[in-house]
What we know:
The chain is mostly beta strands. α3 (409-431) packs parallel to α4 and α5 (557-569) runs parallel beside α6 (610-621).
Amino acid sequence: xxxxxxxxxxxxxxxxxxxxxxxxxxxxxxxxxxxxxxxxxxxxxxxxxxxxxxxxxxxxxxxxxxxxxxxxxxxxxxxxxxxxxxxxxxxxxxxxxxxxxxxxxxxxxxxxxxxxxxxxxxxxxxxxxxxxxxxxxxxxxxxxxxxxxxxxxxxxxxxxxxxxxxxxxxxxxxxxxxxxxxxxxxxxxxxxxxxxxxxxxxxxxxxxxxxxxxxxxxxxxxxxxxxxxxxxxxxxxxxxxxxxxxxxxxxxxxxxxxxxxxxxxxxxxxxxxxxxxxxxxxxxxxxxxxxxxxxxxxxxxxxxxxxxxxxxxxxxxxxxxxxxxxxxxxxxxxxxxxxxxxxxxxxxxxxxxxxxxxxxxxxxxxxxxxxxxxxxxxxxxxxxxxxxxxxxxxxxxxxxxxxxxxxxxxxxxxxxxxxxxxxxxxxxxxxxxxxxxxxxxxxxxxxxxxxxxxxxxxxxxxxxxxxxxxxxxxxxxxxxxxxxxxxxxxxxxxxxxxxxxxxxxxxxxxxxxxxxxxxxxxxxxxxxxxxxxxxxxxxxxxxxxxxxxxxxxxxxxxxxxxxxxxxxxxxxxxxxxxxxxxxxxxxxxxxxxxxxxxxxxxxxxxxxxxxxxxxxxxxxxxxxxxxxxxxxxxxxxxxxxxxxxxxxxxxxxxxxxxxxxxxxxxxxxxxxxxxxxxxxxxxxxxxxxxxxxxxxxxxxxxxxxxxxxxxxxxxxxxxxxxxxxxxxxxxxxxxxxxxxxxxxxxxxxxxxxxxxxxxxxxxxxxxxxxxxxxxxxxxxxxxxxxxxxxxxxxxxxxxxxxxxxxxxxxxxxxxxxxxxxxxxxxxxxxxxxxxxxxxxxxxxxxxxx
Length: 849
């Protein structure tokens, strides 16, 4: 192939061999799309023939054309998969080179399907045997095209070389008989701009147009040269990523595997490092569909950081097994830290708006790909978060990066994984070392909106239920949530769809993870018609919200309400509490969509159903818990009310990582009782469903940000940082744009209105009717106190007090039972028959331990 080797020459050769059959094409590659390719019959095969899916590509990850001066050669054997049948004359196979100059190699690896800026050069051979070089930055722009070719061929060897001539390059592209090596045809391009020869190198199978589209196979792909950059650290699989959690002496970790074959190893191993030696501590089978392996290790050592590696023994060319390793660190439980930092995210669009799986038009590859979100992840690291939260829409069915394939379900499994793997690839450098809570939302399960209605099957989302089959929904949930602590009540809902709501204790912060959507009723058939053409969007300015609060409408459901009641009362090893879910308990967006059209109410929000919202907030304020969520594409901080303004919890809805569909909070009248100097959109309001909300901040779009690309930044993307100060019992909300470097104020700070700091006790803002005596505790610091109404035996609230004294407020006169002490060491004292009294009357009860 190349006789002479020079010192810095890079060399690569493919290893697709007989006896290995799998969808995943190997750790050195990224395939577009996952489901369009396979390894079989000792070769790489493109099995997507549709003319609506042009330019299927497989990118080489471990070698890339660099900017340095040098030469490069590569060759491959190829042929038609459906040999002997009439095929489209414009179907073609070959190489795409110089794809995605200046881009992260992962972003460049998405290039396929559409021509456009940064698309590269396509050197190929069509089914008539005609060689060509096509400029893939423009539609049908051939730089060289043979009109008369070698004719039909069974198999052909393609060879491409580039070499410098003065300040430009010479490109030779030729075809050969594979058996004899005889050259059959050749074309040459001179005066090639060196800028066109920087970027990814790929194989291309283009199906052509018309009725007789086709796919191509490839084998023995060789690449070498001094112009190549070698990146052996850029393997993609077999272990793509990990997510883990630590809670209550249990470590759970899920390893995400690429789609292995039936005859491949079906088990992975977890090893940890002790005294410079690796020791196996667990093994797990790979669950298909989804290709996940979950480790659960009890009695974990929480006191130190522990290096780990996930080991997969992959079958290779001769049938032997080669170990592949994926490394990370499981952090110690930071109980000693005064402040625990949570980084929160939602809404992960990967490409700029306008991309579609059906569209064959131009796509500006080099400036419309947000993936892999390096500008965001690198800034997040600077906050040194202790834990991560992804609230949903890690995947979008519409364009993430291609339109979803929903049926048949066999293809839908791989279609979801193609999209999900991009999330794993983008965020794995965070999740491999930092505990992570990830939950799916509506788009993750391929629905525009989700009212789960207890898991039932539906043919229309607004009727309530799931559109996709239950085995597919369970796969989605398994990929995203199987590393979470065990569910409070693991019984599946209808159709056998699993649940994942649970609690997690980390750094002495107790998180309740709940499922907003799974039990929620669908509005169609329950509520009055909206007259908007959509059962969820109310456009009538005379809409009466009372008509929407109908009997039978469910939000969290009784099972989750029971969970929250028990969680609110459990303060063992806990200093502060937070609830994590998909979306905010308010209808806190008045303008929707690219044109920001006004809606008066939105049934997709958790402002509806109102009675269900009330029940949820009543449970949450018993824990003095703050609520963190996403989904809305609009960052807000809201103090919620149930019977009056500000009598319940605070919430922070974080901004989207990137989004197509902006929303804004622009009420028709200024807010009441807002602080001096605050915008008119802040203050006290009734939302579209008549709920009491006090808006403290909203990152409204509408004005140009002045940041490029505008299509990204003008829609107010970013992330949230939440700081739980356990000593002071304060919670601080920070809202960061993607463009702002937290270490460099000159890049811009947080969105206007942030940061906001509240006290933990602000989460039960209901005004007292009466008070209990002052309790003074000796022998304990910061004990837990629980107030129980003796007339109903109901827990009014539970919290860990600051210091040694506390005077509880109550909301009706009567007698109360007080439990006070330290659940961490099971030292509790119970005082019964404590009478309420006016605030002006003071009595002290001393409790000694």
